[in-house]
Every structure is written in C-alpha cells, then in structure tokens.
Design goal:
By secondary structure, the protein is of the alpha/beta class. It is built from ten helices and 13 strands.
Length: about 325
C-alpha cells in the first residue's frame, strides 16, 4: 500500500529482505539434556528495516516498510505488522519467513540468541523485492537498507538499492555486514552504522583501540563511502564521523535488560530526526537515546517514546553543560 506521508517531514522507506518472526522468552537456567520449561512468550515482527519503521512510528513519525514474506510464519508476521499499523508493501516469496529465538536466563542475566538463516530467494523473488523498492523510493526522501541478506540474494543488493536511491535524490542509510556492506560502501551511502566488529572486518584490521576505530570511521568518510559513519563503542559511548569532524556522546547509564533491536532503534531515531529537519548533532543524540532506551526493555521489545525523549533531554543537557565549561 502507498503511504500518506506527513507534510512536516521527508518520507522514509525501509527495506527488509530477510525479516524474522522474533520469539523471546525467559528461563531460570539454560541446561542441556533436559526439557526447559520457559516463561511467557513474546512475538515481534523483527528484521532490520521493519524494526526501523516500527521505531519511527513509535517516535511519532511514519515510514513505509518493504519486506519479503512467505509461508505460515510469514502469515503470522504479516498479521503482527498489520496489528501495529505500520504502512507496508509485502513481497510474497515461496519459502517460509524465518524465526529468531531469544532466551533470557534470569539466574545470570545472560541472554542467548539463536538467529536462523532464512529462506532462499529465487532471482525472480529478489528482483521483485528490488522492483518494489524502486517503485516506492520517495524523491528527496530517505531509504534505510538494513539487515542480513538471505541465500540467493546477490551481495550487491544493497548497493543496487543505494544506486536507486541516488537516482531519486534520496539518501540511503545502511546497516549491514560482510560482502553486502562492502558492496554498498563501494557504491556510496549517506550513513552507515557498522558495529566495531563489522568495521574491523571491513577494514581488515583489529581496531582494538578507540583511536583506531575513530580513524577507520573517518577513513570511510574521506574515501567517499559514506557521509556519516555511526559507531557504538560500548561503555565508551558512541561517535559520529563526518567531513566536519567527530561527534562523541556518552551512553546514558541504565539497567540493560536486552540489546536486541538497539541498533535498529538507533537508525530509526536518526533517520526520523533527519527527516524532520533536525541537524545531525540532534539526530545523533536521538539515536543514542533510542538505542539506549531499547536496552531497557526485555527480550525483543523495542524502545518506548517516553524513555527516548527523557534520555534525549539528558544528553542535550549534558551537551549544554559541556559547552558552557569550555
């Protein structure tokens, strides 16, 4: 279905070719060789781009989500999307949408995550996904390409999405890894959000210090691979590299319950604030706030708007105090 874009913001499109029905539960202790009786189960429509669209909606915006879906799992997935009223274009595939399984061990606060591979897409199916993206790309808007690529989809799929976005004067934001990341960076994107591990693998270096990580992020900008590189440094905070330099933010101190979806929430808040006309510094604060807010929720639950806005205000106040002390 076509989205009715809010007039106060630029339109946002998200792309998810390997969505997952997220199943999360908890248990006192994970042990082998016996039945494990779990607690209540939660189901969420997961996958990078879909999660980004869900976060955009939770924060008061709107995004159109293009995603591939198939089989009985896919039908359950589609129903969850519809229940959240996320505008979407579902591209049918023959295989069944994958599942992911997250278990919180309450006795240790450890979390176990099992992520399945996903169905193989035929050439006709992935081309249908690309055609749906091409049709829906908003002129002068934002396109978020996020998540893993399933078997059968070429490594340059996201690079093709970035090229289509550029042809419509749209900005492409990328959250991917491995060959898909490399191919898209060779094409060039507006923003990329690799993890420290993904950035190290791409650069072919260990990047075991904050300085080396910041230098690697800045190198991507200097090479023209991305206008912005967002990198989380764990307890050390987060950085945003661009041609104007490096922005640094601390991570607000909260009780971390689950990290599932934190990266998607980061991207969702960043793209929403940019689409609303905010400056990159403000969008970066929102992104850190949203990622942090998601870690406060259990299992596969995403951030809550009131938590995000409270953390945004804390980070803005910290920035003001820092500026006054300089």
């Amino acid at each position: 279905m076509a989205a009715s874009w809010p007039t106060s913001m630029r339109p946002i499109l998200t792309v998810t070719v390997n969505p997952a029905l997220d199943v999360s539960t908890s248990i006192d202790e994970v042990t082998n060789d016996q039945k494990l009786r779990c607690g209540p189960t939660r189901l969420d429509p997961g996958g990078g781009g879909v999660n980004v669209a869900r976060v955009v909606q939770r924060l008061g915006g709107q995004a159109l989500a293009v995603y591939a879906v198939g089989g009985p799992t896919g039908e359950a997935y589609r129903q969850l999307i519809e229940a959240e009223r996320v505008p979407a274009v579902a591209v049918p595939i023959a295989g069944s949408t994958r599942e992911s399984f997250t278990v919180d061990e309450s006795s240790t606060d450890k979390q176990y995550r099992f992520v399945l591979q996903g169905p193989e897409l035929s050439e006709a199916e992935w081309r249908a996904c690309l055609a749906a993206v091409e049709e829906a790309i908003p002129a002068a808007g934002y396109v978020v390409a996020s998540g893993s690529l399933p078997p059968g989809v070429p490594h340059d799929f996201y690079a093709r999405v970035a090229s289509l976005a550029r042809a419509r004067d749209a900005r492409c934001l990328l959250d991917a890894s491995g060959p898909a990341l490399a191919e898209a960076l060779a094409e060039g994107v507006f923003l990329v959000k690799p993890s420290r591990r993904e950035l190290a693998e791409h650069m072919g270096a260990p990047l075991d210090s904050e300085q080396s990580q910041v230098e690697a992020a800045s190198a991507l900008v200097a090479q023209g691979s991305a206008e912005f590189v967002a990198l989380s440094l764990g307890a050390a905070g987060a950085v945003l590299a661009s041609s104007t330099g490096i922005l640094r933010l601390p991570v607000p101190r909260v009780r971390v319950r689950s990290t599932v979806g934190a990266g998607d929430s980061f991207v969702g808040a960043f793209v929403l604030r940019m689409a609303q006309g905010h400056e990159p510094e403000s969008a970066f604060r929102s992104a850190v706030a949203a990622g942090t807010a998601t870690t406060m929720t259990p299992g596969t639950e995403l951030c809550h708007r009131d938590d995000v806005e409270r953390l945004e205000a804390e980070l803005a106040a910290l920035a003001d105090r820092t500026a006054q002390s300089v």
